[in-house]
Amino acid sequence: MSPPRSAPRYTGIRTFASLEHVPLAALAAADAETRAEVAIVGIPFDTATSWRPGARFAPEAIRSASVLLRPWHPRHRVEVLREGAVVDAGDVGITPGNAARTSDQIAAALSPLSAEGTATLVLGGDHTVALGELRAHAAGAGPVPLLVIDAHADTWDEYYGERIFHGTFLRRAIEEDLVDPARSLVAGLRGSLYSPTDLEDARALGLELVTIEELRALGPDGFAAGARARCGSEGVVLSFDIDAVDPSAAPATGTPEVGGLSAAETLAFVRALAGITFAGFDLVEVSPPYDPPAQITSLLAANIAYEMLALAALARAR
């Protein structure tokens, strides 16, 4: 039986799940034998959001909630937080109010990790951060297959005249040839629209869309089978917007939409993706100022991140 922690969870410096902190620069410079296989990276940027700000505080809040996590995953029967395999690389330096410059900063920070085969788990930040993240992944691998779980398609051309925005990141990524739309899908779509073209335009880009009703009808296993058929099983990037979850389970988000996934459904849909090797993950749009005192959104986000790390651990085991 593994011993418990030597000190209470609420002590010490807050890294994700109390993992070792290895700064981004040091991680990129490490040799192949000592380099971590997965790096958790915070991107505290939220000034490209359209409604509620506050996601800049998400990396800190998710890390704080993650201290409850333990290394062993009983369903997958894998050690998720193996020492040395997963590290917390801290936060990317960003420029508040400047989405274009921040996207460049993210790409520059993550590209060395992607080039060396280190998977990244990005804690956003609003969904704009995915643009720089995808630039890093595509720099070496070319256009990547992207699996998005989100209430919104995020394929508008502009918003308030801004072309780099949390509702436009996916269109920009396709235009920049970072994402292969023929191998990508967006699941969990729901809520009111400005017009029918909101979804028609997304499909015209080549994306497969799955509404929340279709997602529930598929169930976790059917969704995972469709994701493998569409995206393949290698080099996929998984992007999870917390607004895919119903506000009753995740109220602290920038653009809440009712009728989303429950907490239990969310974990089941992510767990079902076992068998896919992911080049990277992100978890975005948590806005901690809108959480109740129990911090239920940050707690759920930490557990979604843990499930992502479990998928990476399963890929290592294979």
Task: Give the tags.
15% strand; two-stranded antiparallel ribbon; 35% helix; alpha/beta; single chain; Arginase, Chain A; 9 helices; 318 residues
Task: Give a brief outline of the structure.
With 318 residues, the chain is of the alpha/beta class. The protein has nine helices and ten strands. It has helices at 24-29, 58-65, 99-115, 129-141, 169-175, 197-204, 212-231, 263-271, 296-317; strands spanning 38-43, 72-73, 78-79, 86-91, 119-124, 146-149, 185-189, 208-211, 236-241, 278-284.
Structural notes for this entry:
This protein is of the alpha/beta class and about 325 residues long. It has one domain (about 15-315): 3-Layer(aba) Sandwich (Arginase, Chain A). It is about 35% helix and about 15% strand. It contains nine helices and ten strands. The protein has an eight-stranded parallel beta sheet, with helices on both faces. The protein has a two-stranded antiparallel sheet with strand order 2-3. Strand 7, helix 6 and strand 8 (about 210) form a beta-alpha-beta unit. Helix 4 packs parallel to helix 5. The radius of gyration is 18 Å and the shape is globular. The chain starts with about 25 loop residues before the first helix and ends with a helix. The mean pLDDT is about 95.
